[in-house]
Amino acid sequence: MSRYARGRGMAAAWYGIAKTATIDRAGSWVELDDGGTAKVLTGVTEIGEGILTVLAQVAAEELGIRPEQVTIGDNDTSRSPEAAHAGATRQTYMIGNSVALACRNARERLDAEIADHWGVDINLIEAFNGEIWARGTNKRMTMEEAVHICKSRGVVPVGSGSFTAHGTGLDPVNGTGAPWQVYVFGAQVAEVEVDTVTGEVQVLGMWAVHDVGRTINPRGVEGQIEGAIVQGLGQALMEDYQTEKGHTTTPGFSKYILPTALDIPQINSRLVEDRDPKSPLGAKGIGEPALVPTAPAIINAIYDAIGVRITSLPATPEKVLAGLAAKKAASIAAE
Amino acid sequence: MPDHVMNLTVNGRKVKRPLGENYRLLDFLREELHLTGAKEGCGAGECGTCSVFVDGKLVKSCLMPTLKADGATIETVEGLAPLDSLTEVQRAFHKTGASQCGYCIPGMVMAATAALRENPEADFEEIKERLGGNICRCTGYAKIFEAVEIARDVIAGRLPQTALEPDAAAESFIGASVRRIDAPSKVTGRLKYAGDMIMPDMLHMQVLRSPHAHARIVSIDTSEAEALEGVACVITAADVPGEDGFGVFVHDQPIMARGKVRHVGEAVAAVSAESVEIARRALGLIKVEYEELPAVFDPEEAMRPGAPVIHDYAPDNLVKHIPIRKGDVEAGFAEADLIVENTYSTQQIEHAYLEPEAGLAYVDPDGVVTIHSPSQNITHHRHMLAKIINRPINKVRFIMSPVGGGFGGKEDMIYQGMLALAAMKSGRPVRLVFTREESIIASAKRHPARITYRMGLKSDGRITAVSFRMISDGGAYGMSTEGVMRKAAILAFGPYEVPNLKVDTYGIYTNNTPSGAFRSFGAMQTQFATESHLDLCAEKLGLDPFEIRRRNMMKIGSTTHTGQMLETCSMEEVLRVAEEFCRWERGAPTSRGATRSDLGGPDTRKPCTLGARFKMPEAEESKQEVA
Questions:
Q1: Closest-CA residue in chain A for B571?
Q2: How confident is the model at residue B623 (pLDDT cuts 50, 70, 90)?
Q3: B15: exposed, middle or buried (C-beta count within 10 Å: 0-12, 13-18, 19+)?
Q4: b or e along B166-186 (b: 16 or more beta carbons within 10 Å of the residue's beta carbon)?
């Protein structure tokens, strides 16, 4: 047997989007502001996933301006509308749709004034990238002018939006219920190399395929998948918070081992865009679901490589060596 | 030597300042010079967030005594580029989306800058090695490596400067990789996290934590601590004016231990003082008399009659049991051709966000109790705190500070209540910054799980019945356990349709560090078991892993385990794309790695061979040669 054994494994997963088994909701306020810029206020919490950029993209698209022209007023319980928490893979879905609705509401105000100003049907008005025009006519101006005209007519182009996702509670006896209105699906494949002398496992490649609904920011989605896979890899192979009679024996990063630059596989991701029919944007989410299949894909790949089934995470070198030794003992006993 | 006057050159300017209490260079830069781009992530030289250049050498400033830097030339992330401009490395980080929460990013930018200064031709492998001393918990490092390679090539002239520009706007901003709007603030170190914030007249808080896993508090004497010069106030559970108790689902946790402590590291009292040092000294003057109680550290032991009771309201130590039933499980097993049983377990996991918990609270001129903190759920915190401090809800204001990573670990209000009480008692702003060790012992973890699995299948791979039972250690407080048990149960059997199913998940109180929300909220634990088990079954039936999943997968119109009809479902498409994308070679999972032909493709990396001097002993030979 060669010292280095390679193998591949796969795992699939599913996940529900937004709060579980309850009604979820998010609110936003929007103003098309001077200079053709915009203010978006919502109780959003950027925890690193890039939600502020996602909301700027949504607002720019819906308002007809550019993302860098959007200023986001984020979470302050005394200043911004309630949009609940940063968790449950809910912010793009809940707050993204809420902002889209608020922007459409502001545009209705603006478009009505501009259509009247031009003497055209409101349904002909379109806007993109800082310009507004009436389809099929030569009427066109910048958003800066449009906001100025709207305000000169006594109307501030503001809007509000509230988006609701309908989930139901579970029956306490048999668990029956409809906990989410939208689900996502994913699958990952891992390729590993096991050092049969040291018991170390290296993950050399990961392939991740996830349904995210309509993609808002492809690079941002990739970043979420990569981060999730590396957290899943940490759980599969090395991370282990331990206590001894309630006292931790892993109180810092020298004892609690995290994946670093040299542990990272090449990560290949591809998106499946099955749009959500129940929401204005059609987007779903990716933050949590991308982590779910990683560890079982790696563990299945270890089995493929060396025939050792790890059932207790993490697959430390000690457990891998113990598994190899047990396998060898079993094969000798069988002879 | 607090009076010693330090003479340094910092970011091109002469600096002359007293050393003060800033023993570590990191503290001198942050507290004396207000250069907060260098962050404290671990305080032990392990994470690299505090990296700066000292006389041109990359140094972890948390490990360097300030005096050692006397006379040195220091360059911090703030000094890399003039205001309103970015270096190539910073622009490349912006371009590729290399910053997520941003807390590790100043250190990463410094390490990447050092790598390219020391070897402008560093290849991919060398770049990775040179960044090996910096931890990032958000990005998975991939976009960071990509950024450094682009910056290297732009600096060398192999790529044009335009490679650092944003991609041109297409027909829609949705579906476009628009650059992150918050990246410039993060790659320059300008963004202020809660621990970077200061206010005039601000006090510093330190927390006294329980050394016991389970003990009755007989008495707390804070008089000596309160008398110490520089101490503004000491708070305990006795200072709570309203209804004490918080939690994501059940409000079973007091702001500080009330009557007894339930886990090691639980907050017992907190001191607010003119400096962190004084507050720490005062902690040593607080006298707490404990009477130790029998403790329980294993959830299955905690479920047995007669086990120590952790919360009076839950005499059986049960936080939550979630049952899911579908069809007739016994009939399903009876019709199976094959029944496979196994057990699985997963461990407790620390979130390890690079930003330890921190917050700043004050009472504003209108009497509004205001708290800045990197919390994931300030709306709920506001509701709970209003009850706890007995004020109308509009007299409580939570402001989200930039969150340096969360992953679920910052959903629990484990310190904001103490800050509010201290601000109310002292009438001054109060700041608390956790150490890494404090963050690890006081914050929730991913629930560890023990899972017993039984699955019945027909010989063609169709699953006829599933029985699934999970016991999870919830630790000392409820936190998110109820919700985690619910999501774990609903999603347990994965995206497969089965007519007969029985799932039970149990979250149990113990005297361990509490478990709480963590990215995937229980779904990772249960689906780890399901996906491992399916491969076991596939091997026994001689089926390809994709194929066994396809034969059972959910489709449009399928009924989920909770009886919900799916109106959309992309599972078939996901499996099809995944199988093709990775060039999967079909076959049953029989440990066939040695004979596979789909390994080592261009979409994999090379194995890392650091330290590979050891030679493989000859097959079956026990003699080892060590170089």
A1: A185
A2: very low
A3: middle
A4: eeeeeeebbbbbbbbbbbbbb
Q: How confident is the model at residue B610 (pLDDT cuts 50, 70, 90)?
A: low
Sequence ranges of the domains in chain B? 5-79, 88-166+182-191, 300-344+446-548
Name every chain A residue with its beta carbon within 8 A of the beta carbon of B446. 235
Which pLDDT value is given to residue B624?
Answer: 43
Judged by CB atoms closer than 8 Å, whether chains meet at A215 and B175 is answered as yes
d(CA A114, CA B67): 67
- Measured between CA atoms, the residue of chain A closest to residue B346 is A313
* Total CB pairs under 8 A between chain A and B: 479
Q: What is the ipTM of this complex?
A: 0.98
- CB-nearest partner of B593 from A56, A86, A304: A304
* B232 DSSP assignment: E
- Over chain A, what is the mean pLDDT? 97
* Candidates B140, B177, B604; nearest CB to A226: B140
Q: Is the confidence at residue B33, as pLDDT, over 70? A: yes
Task: Give the global pTM.
Answer: 0.97
Question: Are A15 and A89 spatial neighbours (Cβ–Cβ below 8 Å)?
Answer: yes
pLDDT of residue B615: 61
Q: Which domains does chain A have, with CATH numbers?
A: 4-16+183-334 (3.30.365.10), 24-163 (3.30.365.10)
Chain A residue numbers with beta carbons less than 8 Å from the beta carbon of B395 are none
CA distances from B238 to A102, B213, B218, B267 (A): 45, 21, 14, 13
Asked if the C-beta of B321 comes within 8 angstroms of chain A's C-beta atoms, the answer is no
What does the alpha-carbon distance between residue B70 and residue B28 come to, in Å, rounded to a whole number?
11
B300-344+446-548: in CATH 3.40.605.10? no
Q: Does B342 touch chain A (CB under 8 A)?
A: yes
pLDDT band with cut points at 50, 70 and 90 for residue A302: very high
Q: In what order do the strands lie in the sheet with B203-209?
A: B231-235, B267-273, B203-209, B430-433, B358-363, B369-373, B396-400
| DSSP of A52-111 | HHHHHHHHHHHHTS-GGGEEEE--BTTTS-----S-TT-IIIIIHHHHHHHHHHHHHHHH
B88-166+182-191 CATH: 1.10.150.120
Residue A46 annotated as catalytic: no
Maximal CA-CA distance, chain A: 93
Ranges of H-type helices in chain A? 51-63, 96-118, 143-152, 218-237, 294-306, 317-334
Inter-chain residue contact A246 with B512, CB threshold 8 Å:
yes
Q: Please check the confidence at residue B459 and state whether its pLDDT lies above 50.
A: yes
Q: According to the model, what pLDDT value does residue B1 have? A: 76
What are the tens digits of pLDDT across the range A307-328? 999 999 999 999 999 999 999 9
Q: Is B388 on the interface with A (CB under 8 A)?
A: no
Task: Name the helix (H) or strand (E) containing B549.
Answer: helix B545-552
